[in-house]
Design a protein that fits this description.
The chain is an alpha+beta fold and about 90 residues long. It is about 15% helix and about 25% strand. The longest helix has 11 residues.
C-alpha cells in the first residue's frame, strides 16, 4: 500500500502518526482511504470532492497538479506527501 506522509500540523488529526498507509490505485483513492481511517483529516484536506487549494500533494516528489491531479496512478511502493501551504511575511 502506498505510504502517506502526514505533516506535523496535521498529525493531531491522524492519531499523532507521521506516516500512514492507504489502499487505492490513484492518489484520490488513497487519500479517501486515509480520511476514512482518520475522519478528522477530511475537512482539512478536502473541500467537497476537491483538495483544498492550500493543500499540495506530491507523489515521489512530483506535484500531482502537473501529473493527473487526484487521478494520478500510484503503486504500493509510492510515497505520497501532503504539504500544507504556509503563509508568512
Amino acid at each position: 500500500m502506498p505510504s502517506v506522509l502526514i505533516p506535523t500540523p496535521l498529525r493531531p488529526h491522524a492519531s499523532g502518526l507521521d506516516n500512514v498507509t492507504g489502499q487505492g490505485d490513484t492518489v484520490g483513492a488513497v487519500l479517501l482511504d486515509v480520511v476514512t481511517q482518520h475522519p478528522a483529516l477530511l475537512e482539512r484536506l478536502f473541500d467537497g470532492d476537491d483538495l483544498r487549494r492550500f493543500v499540495n500533494v506530491y507523489v515521489n516528489n512530483e506535484d500531482i497538479r502537473f501529473l493527473d491531479d487526484l487521478q494520478t496512478a500510484v503503486t504500493a511502493t509510492d510515497e505520497i506527501s501532503i504539504i500544507p501551504a504556509i503563509a508568512g511575511g
